[in-house]
Amino acid sequence: MSSTTYCLIHMAMSGIYVFTAYYAFFHLDIPMLRRSTEYFDPGQFKYLTVWNVILQAIFFFICMLNDVYGTNKSSPKKTPFIRRFKDFFHAALSFPVGMFVGVTFWSLMFVDRELVLPKALDPYFPSWLNHLMHTLIVVTTVTEMFIAPRQYPKRTQGLGGLLSFMLTYLVWMHVIYMKSGIWVYPVMEVLTVPLRIAFIVVLLLFTVILYFTGETFNHLIWGNTRKTLTKVGKKKKSK
Asked: What does pTM read for this prediction?
């Protein structure tokens, strides 16, 4: 695949998420949620889904920069900084957070949609926007896994970046609750404190599992290619 094709694909993906974030911040208006958080309302920025949309927009923009100034080779002789940063961003944030948002949202929707997206919101929250936020993210992050190679960072770095991001959002969610008395997600309302703690721990463990899932998929898709290229390089040096 040529660098121009890579750039066009990544430009389209970044553009979609920029538009999604723009619509969420400037056009999405849900009256009942606005009234419930009138004392402290960070707007759409209170949702992990929106954090993820911003993450994906940034990630695919970084991919565009890498297409122009970096490299998409499986095993470059010298890896540019933008390529290393892109690989880290996808491994630590884009893949696990994107998959987490998509999988947990649709799983909870299957159990009881009132826990995440009550029917009362349907007149204000378009179905196409829902799919951009919760379905397309899974499609694009998995597609990126197949079309472009990456070298995973050290696990301490990758997992450290992921858990730092998730813990930051958890702190933010509790700040919102302390200031407004309202949980961002209705599922937190129906859980007792011990169950709430267990629920959060399980979700954090799930993000770790998703990190290793991405690492495993990457090895299955690109690992053999990288090994082959490494062997070829060693043979050339020996000659």
From this structure: 0.87
